Amino acid sequence: MQKSLNIAVAGAGLVGTLLAIYLKKIGHHVQVFDKNKDIREIEFSGKSINLAISTRGWKTLDDIGIGDRIRQLAIPMDKRAIHKVDGSVTHQKYGVDGGSIYSISRGGLNRIMVDIAEEFGVEFKFERKIWDVNLSEPSLFVGKSERGDWEELPFDKIFGADGAFSKIRARMQKQNRFDYSQYFLPLGYKELRIPASADGTHKIDKNSFHIWPHGDFMLIALANEDGSFTCTLFMPFEGEISFENINTEEKLLHFFAEYFPDTKDLIPELTTDYFKNPTSSLVTTQCFPWTYQDKVALLGDAAHAIVPFYGQGMNAGFEDITEMYRQIQKHGDDWQAVFENYENVRKPNGDAIAELSFRNFIEMSTKTADEMFLLQKKIEAKFTALYPERWLPLYDRVTFSLRPYTEALAIGDMQRDVMNEIMATPNIREKWDTEEIMQKMYQLTEN
Amino acid sequence: MQKSLNIAVAGAGLVGTLLAIYLKKIGHHVQVFDKNKDIREIEFSGKSINLAISTRGWKTLDDIGIGDRIRQLAIPMDKRAIHKVDGSVTHQKYGVDGGSIYSISRGGLNRIMVDIAEEFGVEFKFERKIWDVNLSEPSLFVGKSERGDWEELPFDKIFGADGAFSKIRARMQKQNRFDYSQYFLPLGYKELRIPASADGTHKIDKNSFHIWPHGDFMLIALANEDGSFTCTLFMPFEGEISFENINTEEKLLHFFAEYFPDTKDLIPELTTDYFKNPTSSLVTTQCFPWTYQDKVALLGDAAHAIVPFYGQGMNAGFEDITEMYRQIQKHGDDWQAVFENYENVRKPNGDAIAELSFRNFIEMSTKTADEMFLLQKKIEAKFTALYPERWLPLYDRVTFSLRPYTEALAIGDMQRDVMNEIMATPNIREKWDTEEIMQKMYQLTEN
């Protein structure tokens, strides 16, 4: 399909490793550079949020034949479990057709993917930090320290999959006419842990995405294979309820007792976890172009880091690979065409999922606890069952379809307007499932 | 007022040099670092746009007592001169009170300001490039080349006035929770030149800001002291009429003959200028925070690079200095308070002038040629004369007042809505100066 080339991938994370597998499979010589130690030999840092693999991610994994090996590590979640302060739990099914998203730990997934990549013949160069890039050669300047000796390594192509603070992109940013932005939420997050029961089972339902929604802040928990849960507390950095203010054991215990009472026996190491684990920040980065001539291309977070509230960061990164591969199949050795089409297709989708992810914090942390939101979901589900060609809920289009994110954003806005009108119907609580409401929706979705 | 400190200023441009004068005047030891040769010994690069000093800029110069020396080099412009393709020229007065803005060449201004700064006792370190910054010391890593030897120089404070691609800001960008964006217009610019007449006089009116407006592209000309004009051609990079397409002498001459026929005898070296001078890009950068603890602060383009269409880039940078000085007078040695208040006051104003500058391209390149725009200006002027406390036109508030840019943007939006309603009055062309229209404006500005 293509002449075999000497290719460097920056970053041995999920996107870099999977991209390397694709490039190796089609005949290239592929080396992956990462500044960290071999991730199979290190503890992950206590700052991870569990991943939720959904339809787009599975497609990229399945297309190269490794989906089933990953499925063995993944736990299906078919619903949200909403925890209230009175201790009650309500469930909200994902997907009108009963779809599931799959919880997996970042570390576990990354390790097995590096194993698989090595089986394919990909070479990993760990502890080799990239200090600079010559875009026009292209070449990488690699070394142990910035002030020590650097080695200049020439390649035919360089792919930057080195994350939200990509070194490859940092060099591109110095080019004329390179648009770039990084924006941090005033909200941070911290990893906590629910260990397994003594018998190794999960203490709460492993097939639910657990949420404790409280508006400005929330706690979530996703199951791991070993019986534990990775929990993430999202909270403002500053303000009344904030990481800055909750700074003593007493305040912490009081805070959890007030807002998350049913976690008392679930998180035994709360104090240790909270004060030991770092408070991480949440950044959205956007840039353009994503490529330099026919020589360098960015994928994944390096091109479009997003906030985690739609669970699409990794899935969007994997979909970049699917698109790159599609363009390679189409344009072969014409890498200029491959890169141009890749960035023109993916850039608007990167922007769309950034916007959707940004908005979804409100849905997760506020609306999931709101009775009218639940009613709206029921109306949508009923209408979808009656007229499936007329309505696919936004969440389903993002999570359980391969339709472009741009389409999800546009149709989602249209659907929001329709639902605002429907929900403003007098006595909607009583007559939500009547023929009248269904016909009103039918008319509003005409054209 | 303050304990004398050892201060570094990065950048010997206009803002860096003027800031250094202020800091030296209040007793600090000040060194200014610049990667370029002494600007008094070099030719400027043929990529400059003449500056227009207006009220905010003069205030900062006058407050430190150097305004009059600059005035000797500056040429007042009290009006726009709009050139049409039929060769006719119409004039539009600046300012309801007959204010002027002052044309000055960047090179000429920068040279005299370095002279003045040396008279004050500021030390300049030219050809000393900053390769890295240690924000928390703070210290600068300075050297001739990136791979050669660097010297680490410690300071009490570091001020980054090193322009749109600031090295100081680049280091701050790597800090957690640092918001940053750079956005390029799809439009570039190129410097051209109208030389003086044989007798040393100006070939066209020196007291006008000359504009040849054509919507997507435009030519402007501002007078220099030596009888010449610095012209700037603004045009899209790509597209039908673009720098990419106008790439032969034949196309260039045809283009100028069609759109700028009255420049035929004014720009004798058109072909040489056009093909020799670089095509420059136009960037807006925004960031926050502008300071690091009580150690490092950004001013001018390093904090907020804007597009040139409001003529406020340098004026806004100088106003940063005025605000910094105001906070120094207020808080003395409490540099934490100085920096915090400085950035909290100036950041919203930087964002506001960025937005206003962005919008003003449309006004300059399109509306100045539009009959209804001129009518609107006349209505505004009449209303201002009748009710000066009710209406200060947006241009006047930005250019001829010291009111915050944020206020200009907010009131400007309100005024736009009022004028849209006024201009929609039936037969407005006939009755624009009637009592009815004035009373309608009076009512619309009630509150």
Question: How would you characterize the overall build of this protein?
Answer:
Chains A, B: Pathway: Cofactor biosynthesis; NAD(+) biosynthesis; quinolinate from L-kynurenine: step 1/3. Chains A, B: Pfam families: FAD_binding_3 (PF01494). Chains A, B: It is an enzyme of class 1 (oxidoreductase). Chains A, B: InterPro entries: FAD-bd, FAD/NAD-bd_sf, Kynurenine_monooxygenase. 2 copies of one chain form a homodimer. Chain A is α/β, with parallel strands linked by helices. The first copy, chain A, has 3 domains: 6-46 and 53-73 and 106-182 and 283-360, FAD/NAD(P)-binding domain (3-Layer(bba) Sandwich), CATH 3.50.50; 184-281, no CATH class; 370-445, no CATH class. Helix content of chain A is 39%, strand content 23%. Chain A has 15 helices and 19 strands. The first copy, chain A, has helices at 14-25, 55-63, 67-71, 106-120, 167-173, 249-259, 270-276, 301-304, 313-331, 335-365, 371-386, 394-399, 405-423, 428-431, 435-444; strands spanning 6-10, 29-33, 51-53, 75-77, 79-83, 89-93, 101-104, 123-125, 129-134, 139-143, 151-154, 157-160, 179-194, 208-214, 217-223, 229-236, 280-288, 291-292, 296-298. In chain A, the strands form 4 sheets. Chain A has a 7-stranded mixed β-sheet with strand order 6-5-14-15-16-13-17. In chain A, strand 9 and strand 10 (139-143) form a beta hairpin. In chain A, helix 1 (14-25) packs parallel to helix 4, helix 1 (14-25) runs parallel beside helix 9 (313-331) and helix 10 runs parallel beside helix 13 (405-423). Chain A is globular, with a radius of gyration of 23 Å. The two termini of chain A are 43 Å apart. At the A-B interface, strand 13 of A face strand 13 of B.
